[in-house]
């Protein structure tokens, strides 16, 4: 664009030197007559066809106000509103100016991570679980079926933004607790294994119970194992620590199937089950 502008300006001077009027120059170059007059005068006064140097606008916030903006976002990176900052500090600037101050602090607007609340006891049990299984060979995990039921909820949760530095996604102050709207969309049951994905079935209306879970194990889980996993004489099953999974009727069913070894699972976070990644992909696709 700069080179093109310089060519046009040079053309104005050349046409003027050969006797063309301002109107003729404007018509030939498809520009306005005031533009022709301005560059002819600029060339006459300075002998140049360059733009005048521009002076930077003075900042619309003081260093003290910038520090207040920094303090506000550090105090509450999840709920910080640029509009609220402008109103609270009586700033005469746009929201983009406040965002620019964030960027200057190396803060970026990101979608926050979500997770369930964990107690200190939960954390200790998760660590104990990780240390117990972290050195298991790949051959061990290839003999594990990961099983779970999942209820997909509709939600009216508004998008949330957190202002944070890169690499701080899972810092406590940048994470929001997950919540549900309570409007059930669909309840599903399924499993995954190193060799493939098992049958996905609709659990149906109503809450899942121990009796209903046993029916799913018998009519959905076992046929999937026989079909996909060739039903080895012994294999492992990983399911979360839901009270339904620990119901007496469920325990009795597993006792009647000694070929299935149920792995222990710590309370809290279901994310330790890899099938959660499948559910997450399904949720993302459905949005």
Automatic annotation (TrEMBL):
Per its UniProt record, what Gene3D superfamilies does this chain match? Answer: Ribonuclease H-like superfamily/Ribonuclease H (3.30.420.10), Winged helix-like DNA-binding domain superfamily/Winged helix DNA-binding domain (1.10.10.10)
Q: Where in the numbering of this chain does the Tc1-like transposase DDE domain appear?
A: 144-284
Q: Which residues form a coiled coil?
A: none
Q: List where Polar residues composition bias occurs.
A: 58-68
List the transmembrane segments.
Answer: none
Query: A Pfam family in this protein?
Result: DDE_3
| Bias (Basic and acidic residues) ranges | 43-54
Q: Name one GO cellular component term.
A: nucleus
Q: Which GO terms describe its biological process?
A: DNA integration; DNA transposition
Query: Segment Disordered: which positions?
Result: 43-68
GO molecular-function terms, A-Z: DNA binding
Q: What name is this protein filed under? A: Transposase
Species? Petrolisthes cinctipes
